[in-house]
Structures are given as structure tokens and as C-alpha cells.
Amino acid sequence: MTQKYKERVEKLTSMLDLDMVVITEPTNVFYFTGCHIEPHERVLALLINVKTNDTALMFPALDQEVVNDTATVDNHLPYNDGEDAFRLIFEHAIDAESLGIEGGHVTYNRYQRLLENYTADQIHSVEAQINQLRGKKDDDDREKLQEAVDITEKALADLVNEPVSGKTEKEIAEFLLARVKAHGAVDVSFGPLVLTGENSALPHGTSGETTVEPGHFLLIDFGVVTKDRYVSDMTRTFIIGEPTEEQTAIYNSVLRANEAGIRQAQVGAPMNTLDDAARDEIKADGYGEYFTHRIGHGLGLGLHEAPSLDAQNTDKLEKGHVITVEPGVYKAGFGGVRIEDMLYIDDTPYIFTKFPKDIDSITLEA
């Protein structure tokens, strides 16, 4: 594993024409070092000498044991509360005439501190290069992502093996949280998002006290974080009791869109063509106006990573991309359906999610 982190650093520096990189987003620091620290208001920074690949981790001294046990870096730069962390950065990067930072993460106040030693022209964003690296996964990543999906699906199976009618959204969310931890997750990656009845028409609603009743759509979107920090993200929508004609039409439209997006997920396919393939199915069924978001996104150590599978992104899918395919139809006052699967892009795309999604399988007893 130590070699894996060193190779990631080398890949990053090979893409850059700078002197020093300062990485402060905790998941990015973990990606390049294997060390996960949540610094809260304190400063955490991985300093990479682009010319030599020498690495140094600057961290709150209270996290020294975590760094000793897990960090793959050449140098440790601990600091105590009250000490000026930026002075350590400036001292370590004293010969650097150009600096790379995560442009979308560094706060205004911290950027102003960097301007004490560098001009704006000397500071460059390397976020695109980091995102590009994190967007590509290998076989080890795939195995660990499958573990995350397996835990998610086990918890969902536990839920539907019992009656859900009469339970509130919050009760179901709490049940899923308990079950994913029982199956080995350290946490949920978000949610669980549980929306029933008319609430299911809210793509990112909030689980509340609404009770599951016969005739409802029950939308459940959630994922987990494993011990290795990998995440999952999947959605299944259930129908409580015998589906109505309109429920059947909407559900099958979204299912066809989901399957069309998955068929299009091939090495070399422009990313927007996945969105087009799914959206065309829903438009053909007359529900185009109710599909209000992109078809999917990347994920891995983070819930939302590169790439973004939106209608404007013409970048091509590459081997190693991990993506979601998650079309939806959300009809206010009636309800909504989203079906989300996770895929690994390979010569033959690999589908992580196996939980059934045909209408018979997702129809639950009232």
C-alpha cells in the first residue's frame, strides 16, 4: 500500500510544471498518504515538492499517533495549538517560486495568508489534475467499492424483508443506519434519504414523520462509508401495494432510462451521451419535464467526484471511471421515482449494484 501512495504522488507531479503543491482537503490528503484526519478549524496540509517528489505532512500535534500509524510521507511537520501553521508552510516551501493549491477548497482567508509570501501569479489551482487522478480507479479500488455496495444492499434487503407500511420515513432511515453499521460500515455516506408518497417527488427532500401508506412510491437513496473510506451510492424506489396504471408507466419509464444509460456506458463514449440516452427514453414517454437533474456522477473516496455525467460534458468515459446512472421522474403532488446503479467502466462495464429493480421485485405488500 505504501507504494500505491507514492505512485499517486508521482502521477500528480508528472502532470505539473510547478515547484510545490499544498493539498489541504482531508480526502485528498488521504488519497495521497493513506492518512485520514479531520482537522476541523485547524490546518492540515500535504506539501509535495514537484521536482523531487519529497512529501511532508503538516498536521495538528494532537494527531501525531494517527500520522505515525498511517501516513506514507517523508517528513512530519506537527504544530501545536496557537502556533502559526502557515509559517511552517512558508519555511518548508522557502525555495518554491510557484505553488499549486486546490482552487475550489482553499478559503479566502487562507488564500490571503498565502499571498503574504507569494503573488497571485505564483499560485495556481491543481484541482483539475487531482480530480482527474481520483476519477480513475484500479482493481483494488473496485474491490473495495464492491464491499461498500454489498453492505448497502444487505441493509436494504433487511428492510424489505419486513413490512414497511405504517413506518415513518425517519424510522426507516434509522433502521437502515443501524443495519449498515451491523454489516460493517463505519457510517453512511449521506442520508439515508427516505421519501414516501408525494415527498418522493422531491429529488433531495428530507426524511420526516410522513408514514408509508398503501399506494405510495417509497424512494430510498443512501450509501455507506467502509473501514477503508470507500463509499457507495444507490437508489431504489418501491411501490406499496398493487401499482396503479400511472405508477407502472412512470416506474417503467425510469427503468428503461436507467437501462439505456447503462448500455451507453462504454469506454470512449462521450459522457453527455449517457444523459441523452436516458433522457430520450423519458421524453418519449411524456415525462421529460419531470427529469430535472444530470444522469450521474463519479464517486470513490468521496460521494461526488469526477466525472460529472451532465448534458454539457463531452469528455469521454475511460477505463477505471466509476459512475452512477440515476435517472428520475418527479411529479409534484403525485410522487417520484429514481433508480440508481453504480458502474465501473471497463472493456465490459462492471455493475456493482445487484439489488433487483424490475417492477415485480420492488412492489411491496401494503
UniProtKB/TrEMBL annotation:
Pfam families: Creatinase_N, Peptidase_M24. Residues 143-346 form the Peptidase M24 domain. It comes from the Bacteria. Its cofactor is Mn(2+). Keywords: Coiled coil, Hydrolase, Manganese, Metal-binding. Residues 8-134 form the Creatinase N-terminal domain. This is Xaa-Pro peptidase family protein. It comes from Salinicoccus roseus. The lineage of its organism: Bacteria, Bacillati, Bacillota, Bacilli, Bacillales.
